[in-house]
Write a structure and sequence with these properties.
Helices cover 65% and strands 0% of the residues. The protein contains two helices and no strands. The longest helix is centred in the last third of the chain and has 27 residues. The two termini are 17 Å apart. 0% of the residues are buried. The mean pLDDT is 84.
Length: 74
């Protein structure tokens, strides 16, 4: 069971990294964050990707805590 959880944690970590890298970066980013202030709304795939990244991170954190609890001696 611990091996399956290890593989699942690794898979979730890879998915989180991929989802984070696929997200669109803001336009007009300059040095020290002095970009123009513009308000953008996430729509469609961008919103789905943003929300799925959050869900994956929550599942990853819960699974990591559960994995550590399984490893502790009773």
């Amino acid at each position: 069971m611990a091996t399956a959880i290890n593989w699942l944690v690794i898979l979730l970590a890879i998915l989180i990294v991929a989802a984070t890298l696929l997200q669109v970066r803001g336009t007009g980013a300059t040095l020290f964050g002095a970009a123009e202030s513009s308000f953008r709304v996430r729509r469609g795939f961008e919103r789905l990707l943003f929300r799925s990244t959050i869900v994956l991170a929550i599942i990853f954190a819960g699974l990591a805590v559960w994995h550590v609890r399984l490893q502790l001696p009773s």
